[in-house]
Every structure is written in C-alpha cells, then in structure tokens.
Design goal:
Blueprint lengths: L8 E9 L5 E4 H4 L2 E4 L7 H7 L7 E6 L13 E5 L14 E5 L5 E9 L3 E5 L9 E11 L2
Antiparallel strand pairs: 1-2, 1-3, 1-9, 4-9, 5-8, 6-7, 7-8
Amino acid sequence: MQKAKPGDRVTVNYIGTLDDGRIFANTNEEGALEFTLGGDEVFPALENAILGMRPGEVKNIVLAAEEAYGERSEENLIKLARSSFPPDRELEVGKPLKVDFADGQSLLMRIIEVTDDYLILDGNHALAGCELTFALRLDKIEAD
C-alpha cells in the first residue's frame, strides 16, 4: 500500500481540539480536507505529520502555537476613536468589523472592547496562541 509523499493529493478527516477539550474544527461537519503535500496549503507541521502515512492510518498530533496560527501579538491590536463611526452604528464586543487601511488593504478584525470614547480591535487569528491537537485519518492518496 502506498505512503503519502510530497506532490500527492491527499484527503484527510480530522477533529481539532484545544487544551481544554473544546472542538475548534471537525471535518465530519465541514467536509474532508483535501490538499497537495508540499503545496503550502496547510501548516507545514501538519504536512510533515501526514508524510509517510498510508490510507486508513490514524494519528494524533499536537501543533504548538508557533507551528499553527502563531503567538498572539499586541501589534495586531488597534485602538480607534468611537467618533470614527456613526453614532447609531452598533459596535458589540465579539463582533467582526471590516477595517479598510490607507494602503488599500482590508482586514476583518474582532471588537474586543467598546467604550464611549474608543474601541479596540483584535486582528489576531482566533486560534493564535493556542496549541492545537488533531486526531486525523488519512483517507485517500492520489499520486502525482
């Protein structure tokens, strides 16, 4: 039976959990993950864990934060004056807010604090700073 190698297109099912056991992703609900090994489509550490696996093989892996979404960074927080928004605009903690920057870039950020004078937005990925555990099964290999 063949083993997964760089260039192969693979189909993987997994359940991703956090340290506290909460599920952050489940391919049973979202559909299987399909990608090409070596194609920079998923975390390199995840690719490395799948290399050498055979169809039907299961494995548990743990990715440190720096191997996944990275550490949380204070540089990804911005403080904006409340007056920058229309007074009737609803701004709630936890809600996403699209921010357009002067250089033409747009970024979807989460509101983490709202006062009468300002709001603070977080541009970190929601899973930044988290260790991620994957219970994965390699289902299919399509050789290149």
